[in-house]
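Message: Study each token:
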Amino acid sequence: MFYRPNDGHGLPHNPFPAIVSPRPIGWISTRGADGIDNIAPYSFFNAVAYSPPQVMFSSNGTKADQDGKDTLTNIRDTGVFCVNIVEFAMRDAMNKTSATMDLQVDEFSHAGIERAECDTISCSYVASAPATLECKLTQIIKLEGDQSHAVFGEVTGIRLRDDCVVNGIFDVTKYKPLARLGYQDYASIDTVFSLVRPDAK
């Protein structure tokens, strides 16, 4: 089949997120100007540059009374955020933080997530996360569509859980990263293989 997005797909559910998959999940923690911690998962997330390390995620707001979600509001107010990498064992806690809640709700407490304080920014992170990326905001770009924004940040601090570093390599099979597919589907990665580039030395 072929369809133009403006004309609709005619299927029970939008296939676009299923086509562009699997996608890493950016479990973004922020702190509001009022000091309340927030954490929410974003499946339109990725690394975008190597040196200096930079990441991005997109926020598609759903609240009529503000321009974007709580995460975006907090980042605008404070200029920082933290990316928590989601492991398979954290899938239920991550999913719990995807619920729409008031700005005054502390999602860490709501989901029973143990937190710790970041080193380079004023923000909490998931204490048991396999890896975290502390970030300072570099830019927010308004995207096409209502309340859709791309948020870019430079990584100012990287934390790796000790058990995930094996022989000097960050081993994803030690924690099985969770990936977002389409619809309500997810996948976990427990098998990896290597391909050597033809021009590698």
Q: What stands out?
A: The radius of gyration is 18 Å. The chain has one domain: 20-188. Residues 20-188 form a domain with the Pnp Oxidase; Chain A fold (CATH 2.30.110.10). The longest helix spans residues 70-78.
